[in-house]
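Protein in question passed on here:
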Amino acid sequence: MNFYYFCTMKNLIRYITFFVAAFFLAGCANVVTPSGGPKDDKAPVVLNASPENNSTNFTGKTIHLTFDEFVTLNNPSNNVLISPPLSKKPTYRTSGKTLIIRFEEPLKPNTTYSISFGDAIKDLHEGNVFTGYNYNFSTGKKIDSLSLRGKVTSAATLSPMEDFVVGLYYDDNDTLTLDSMPYKVKPNYVTTTTQKGEFEFSGLADKEYLLFAFKDNNSNFTYDLPNEEIAFYSDLVKPYFIDYKAIKNAIVNDSIVNDSIAVDSLVIDLNKPEYPIYELFSFVQEDSIQKIFKKELVEEGLLRFVFRYPASNVAVTALEELPDTFNIMPVYSTRKDTLLWYFTPCKDSLWISINDGVNISDTTHYSLKPRQSVSRRRRVQEEKSIKKLSIKNNLKASKLKPEQPLIFTFNEPIVGLHLPDSVYYIEDKDTIYNGLQIEKLDDYGLKYKILNNLKQDKKYQVTIPDSVFFGLRDVTNDSITLRFQVQEESTFGNIYLIVNVPENVPQVIIELTTEQGKVIEKLILTQTEEISFWYLDPGKYKLKAIIDLDANGEWSPGNFNRKLQPEKIVFYKGTLEVRANWDIDLDEPWIIEN
């Protein structure tokens, strides 16, 4: 073999070896890393508890819970709840697969303690939360074994309320009444609501309790902030004994093998009448004391007084003799919690008294002139400018619905109306002189409407010349021209239904809302009757009923001090989809139960 041939073969072998290695390496690069088996989706399980769960005569300082896997702690100081609450929070640490709880204060004698872990414990690798486990023990010879379950729901939206503190209080205080305890002391037993708004107590004594829940915004287990949402049960509650072992044995004896079926059966068993679920409805309690929230000069010729509650019984009066040229027109808001004083701007200041004879006694000297502009040029321009009435209308995209009048809304009461003979309006191409009819729509002269019969699918032009409307503050209007049309009935849909009003209820408020909750129309019923919602734009709507027990025309929250629950809200089942030129006629009456 010559030298050249040897070198050629050697190089060939080297190249072949290189390509084979590269081929296998490339193949290896595409191999997926082994998954290690199915994902662990099971929560940790307690294998051993020391002392045992539900043990008695506890005298130690520590509790050990050993799990089947390594666990991690998630803010246990806040997420672990102990009933009765302790003055000093225990310390929590893990050692291997064991959670160690150490008490930092002596425990009460002959007392059953219950520990719920919330979402404080998770497995180390997958983060599965350890839930559904309560650890109970007693420092005496016997352990309390009663339970109590319930749910917290928003009274306004009927949605479940998560992370509410739920407390049980019993009469064990010589200086406090039972009803005052939520304001002053921590509950005798405490837990929190789940994502579904549900809560459960275990290890309870056979006593009657006040059941009270609140959104503990400052995490001190007392209801001491006015903006904390609360819920309460009107009567005292009694816990009950749930024999979980007997229930589970009954399930097994029924030859139910599947775990999920067993759990469902357990839930069904727990919904028996002997295991009542106490439902609480949450609300923000309003302060019952009338107050002045705001008193201010809004602009020249307008003072505003804002109160906490309707103020029709509050006397707002001037404390000095007024000139004949100084006119005042008081105007209340719909709810009567805001009072607007329109006045002729011919005085620089005024003393005013606000008094309700109980909580409000206020005397204030008001400047009736707005603060001057800093810019001299701007001030001169303001002095030269002529103020005009502000006029708004109810047109939407230059359209009116059938049978809907054209309405003008003013920024101050109108005290004079002068409609000259030269006024005209145009219907399609027909010009109609001296035919425009205008009428005051409210008691104050803030709204006026056109009385003319406006026909469907017609185009209109309405021109109001200047100096037709005269306001209280000696101003008048500029000329305005509006072009619009009245839509045809076939553009809209209608809803018809019968509403059964419960007996012994003064009235029920029915609200038609969008899917998002915006109120489209509101009716007040005092008896069972058929109602209609006309000329609705195509879309999806909901119906909402309010049992208006105080007959004030709006939903009223509860009051714990007066033992008043929030007014009940009922939603009609499902969503109503309105289509153009289509009627929804609901055959079955809507039966509203109080």
In short: The two ends are 110 Å apart (CA to CA). The chain is about 10% helix and 35% strand. Residues 195 and 269 are 22 Å apart (CA to CA). The mean pLDDT is 87.
